[in-house]
Structure to design on (882 residues):
């Protein structure tokens, strides 16, 4: 029997799923046996599920999800069902009257991975087959509830042609492997995963892959085999990822006491992949960009990013796999927690201070922007149409900040007691964010200590969107040495989301007096809308001590304290909290860049900044090159746009270019001295030497902008050198300049790396983001480049994402950039809805532009809205149109 499914319309708006409607699935499915037979033109999937009705559940139909499946047969307890017993639609299988006692359901389906361009479910990537099941991809493999609260033990048999697919992988441990009886051209492998897991963690890979093998000995003495599978020829680029995995395993044991629980751990690198990586139990699948790397082929930032992502996916073994989320509204339960854990891992291995600054800058330029736009949503959303649209910086990075606030409020020891209780209590379960917070609180108070804040009030952070603002007003009595601080918190409105105030906001603060010696850091818990703090016994002086606020970036908030430039320069020079020191500099840079962008440069402030930088650059100044580079870096464009009355990205770009030129000219002797000072360390292997390379890149950008021909030549030479970090830094330094060195550098990079797609994607991004008079035509031609792979999300993001970062061309005054992007999103949506919907968010801040520019973006959004769109992209477009 064959049942051909009707095709779903590409432009039907998906139903809204709401948290308040959550109900447990009426059946448990304790075990699933899959038999996957890979043929030459299709794959046959036999699925045998054991189902047990929930105790007390009312008799009802069994509804299973399924997309693009060709149903071959269906049986209950080996008895074939009649057509009248069930109904098949484009999206589900409904069995009208299933048994109300435990039973076995067996379905056989055919699927076509070669035709699956969505990169969800089982699909072809180059010459191999691979899976991506999070969030709802398993329904493209077989009929199943496909929801995270249904946990099962999986046994998987895979059969395929031995020559074409010599490697067959799935979750767990391999039970058996060998040639197929009666057909030596085919072989089979059976995998068993003893852990309960939801369907989104299922994984399968089949292909011609080479294995790099290592091992890890756990703290209890067990040997774990580590295998990294890559395409032939890529083996030399795997050492960094493998060492990162071993560091991750050791760190999780040392810090959290969590040991790996299986005999083997497999990782596969795939070029065609929507995500960065996926934590499938014991079979992690990675975007090849986040595996294949060494110092010649990846920058310092990419090496650290790879280490962090490898750690993130490994840490999911406990915070995501052993304990998963009950429903997709709880997505941050696993993602926010695991981001927090990988941030701590990177901070422990490298620089805690610089990692905190990096994370704060990222939050300000991405998540704050999201929180202030039409796609704003809570860390725990209450409704969605396409869950793929909620894999956002709010869920991940803001979710991590909520956990960090808990640690700040409780202290390290109490917080870790709570973490230990969470892992112990919910192991093997599908949990909620409420379960997590309750475990943290109970563990923290397990020795009788008071909590110190209202738990229910803290959980408001999970339930509402928007970035709070804390306003600080000061009253200074210079004759008595009394400083009175009046603090008020507020959260701006977001679309359709009422606000509950006050929130619980941890504020770490200190005073920095005129002598430059910071006072003791203190924690203030802001849990009222208004709070007053009176500080007595301070030294009497005309000006109050400088106020160092939200040290360590203790809460993901804006703050307004009306601090004069002199106070900020004091903090920049003297504060002993690295984040607060950097933030003072960022506030000064904001004022400088915004003044330039408005057409009224602040000469006095620019002069003061030149003096401050002269002190930092001097031989006796800032000694850490990475810190110095961080202090000299301008704020990100999105952060600056949010501070303009009418966001004007091209004006901000031109202002930054002008400032690099001016500061490069004024500080040239000191900048050259610093280049000479760090030069001997440029060749040090990562992580050594990364600060020196970072500072070199920044100085190149300033001096190249200032017209330094020697630096332009040095930068050009670096493009062909042994360090990808310096090559990329050189390209970035030359990119804004219409000069022969820029064109030579881009040409050399193209010729050197065109055979390496993982690296060549960065050339696509550089070309697409280079400001040129014919920029739009150049970007259009990139889409026809013989090395451009339209099916590879990395390549698409490189070209179209790079184009969105080409501020002068994307924001062209005639709207041509917006129209071009809309056309590309419509075309992309037909083959990869996830990538298209994420790309559509480049228009999310259109409401902050001038009325003329708004009209141009609105025309592009209307063009998108009128097209036949997937539910993913339509949801994003309609949110932006309001």
């Amino acid at each position: 029997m064959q049942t051909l499914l009707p095709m779903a319309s590409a432009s039907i708006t998906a139903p809204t799923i709401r948290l308040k409607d959550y109900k447990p699935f009426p059946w448990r499915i304790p075990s699933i046996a899959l038999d996957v037979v890979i043929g030459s033109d299709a794959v046959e999937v036999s699925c045998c599920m054991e189902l047990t009705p929930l105790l007390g559940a009312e008799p009802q139909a069994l509804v299973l999800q399924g997309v693009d499946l060709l149903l071959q047969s269906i049986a209950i307890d080996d008895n074939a069902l009649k057509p009248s017993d069930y109904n098949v639609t484009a999206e589900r299988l409904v069995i009208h009257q299933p048994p109300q006692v435990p039973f076995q359901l067996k379905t056989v389906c055919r699927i076509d991975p070669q035709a699956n361009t969505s990169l969800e479910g089982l699909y072809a990537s180059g010459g191999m087959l691979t899976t991506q099941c999070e969030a709802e991809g398993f329904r493209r493999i077989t009929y199943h509830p496909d929801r995270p609260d249904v946990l099962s033990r999986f046994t998987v048999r895979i059969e395929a042609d031995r020559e074409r697919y010599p490697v067959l992988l799935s979750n767990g441990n391999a039970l058996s492997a060998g040639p197929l009886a009666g057909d030596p051209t085919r072989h089979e492998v059976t995998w068993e995963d003893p852990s309960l897991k939801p369907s989104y963690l299922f994984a399968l890979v089949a292909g011609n892959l080479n294995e790099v093998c290592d091992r890890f000995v756990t703290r209890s003495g067990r040997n774990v085999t580590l295998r990294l599978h890559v395409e032939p020829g890529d083996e030399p680029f795997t050492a960094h990822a493998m060492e990162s995995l071993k560091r991750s395993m050791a760190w999780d044991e040392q810090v959290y006491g969590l040991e790996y629980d299986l005999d083997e751990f497999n990782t596969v690198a795939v070029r065609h992949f929507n995500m960065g990586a996926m934590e499938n139990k014991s079979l992690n699948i990675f975007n090849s960009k986040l595996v294949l790397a060494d110092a010649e082929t990846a920058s310092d930032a990419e090496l650290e990013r790879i280490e962090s992502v490898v750690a993130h996916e490994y840490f999911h073994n406990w915070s995501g796999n052993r304990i998963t989320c009950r429903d997709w509204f709880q997505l941050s339960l696993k993602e926010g927690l695991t981001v927090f854990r990988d941030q701590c891992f990177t901070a422990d291995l490298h620089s805690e201070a610089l990692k905190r600054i990096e994370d704060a800058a990222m939050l300000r330029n991405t998540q704050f922007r999201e929180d202030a736009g039409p796609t704003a949503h809570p860390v725990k959303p209450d409704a969605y149409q396409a869950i793929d649209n909620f894999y956002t910086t709010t869920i991940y990075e803001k979710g991590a900040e909520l956990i960090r606030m808990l640690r700040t409020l409780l202290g390290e020891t109490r917080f870790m007691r709570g973490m230990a209780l969470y892992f112990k209590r919910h192991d093997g379960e599908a949990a909620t964010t409420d379960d997590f917070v309750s475990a943290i609180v109970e563990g923290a108070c397990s020795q009788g200590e008071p909590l110190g804040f209202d738990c229910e009030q803290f959980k408001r952070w999970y339930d509402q969107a928007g970035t709070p603002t804390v306003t600080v007003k000061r009253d200074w009595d210079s004759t008595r040495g009394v400083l009175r601080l009046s603090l008020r918190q507020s959260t701006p409105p977001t679309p359709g989301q009422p606000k509950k105030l006050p929130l619980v906001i941890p504020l770490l603060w200190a005073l920095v007096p005129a002598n430059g010696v910071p006072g003791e850091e203190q924690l203030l818990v802001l849990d009222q809308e208004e709070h007053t703090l009176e500080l007595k016994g301070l030294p009497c002086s005309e000006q109050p001590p400088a106020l160092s606020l939200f040290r360590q970036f203790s809460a993901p908030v804006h703050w307004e304290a009306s601090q004069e430039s002199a106070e900020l320069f004091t903090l920049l020079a003297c504060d002993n909290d690295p984040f607060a020191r950097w933030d003072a500099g960022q506030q000064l840079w904001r004022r400088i860049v915004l003044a330039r962008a408005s057409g009224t440069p602040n000469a006095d402030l620019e002069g003061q900044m030149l003096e401050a930088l002269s002190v930092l650059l001097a031989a006796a100044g800032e000694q850490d090159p990475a810190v110095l580079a961080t202090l000299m870096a301008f704020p990100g464009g999105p952060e600056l746009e949010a501070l303009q009355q009418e966001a004007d990205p091209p004006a901000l770009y031109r202002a930054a270019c002008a400032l690099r030129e001016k500061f490069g000219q004024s500080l040239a002797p000191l900048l050259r001295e610093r280049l000479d000072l760090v030069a001997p360390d440029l060749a040090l292997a990562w992580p050594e030497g990364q600060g020196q390379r970072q500072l070199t890149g920044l100085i190149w950008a300033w001096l190249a902008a200032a017209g330094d021909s020697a630096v332009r030549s040095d930068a050009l030479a670096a493009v062909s050198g042994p360090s990808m970090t310096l090559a990329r830094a050189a390209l970035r330094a030359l990119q804004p300049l219409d000069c022969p060195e820029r064109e030579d550098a881009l040409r050399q990079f193209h010729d050197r790396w065109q055979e390496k797609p993982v690296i060549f994607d960065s050339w696509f991004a550089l070309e697409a983001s280079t400001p040129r008079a014919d920029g739009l035509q150049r970007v259009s031609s990139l889409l026809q480049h013989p090395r451009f792979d339209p099916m590879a999300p990395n390549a698409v993001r490189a070209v179209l994402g790079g184009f969105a970062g080409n501020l002068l061309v994307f924001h062209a005054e005639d709207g041509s950039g917006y129209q071009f992007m809309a056309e590309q999103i419509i075309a992309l949506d037909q083959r990869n809805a996830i990538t298209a919907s994420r790309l559509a968010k480049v228009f999310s801040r259109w409401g902050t532009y001038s009325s003329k520019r708004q009209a141009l973006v609105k025309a592009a959004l209307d063009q998108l809205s009128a097209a036949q769109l997937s539910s993913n992209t339509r949801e994003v477009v309609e949110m932006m149109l309001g």
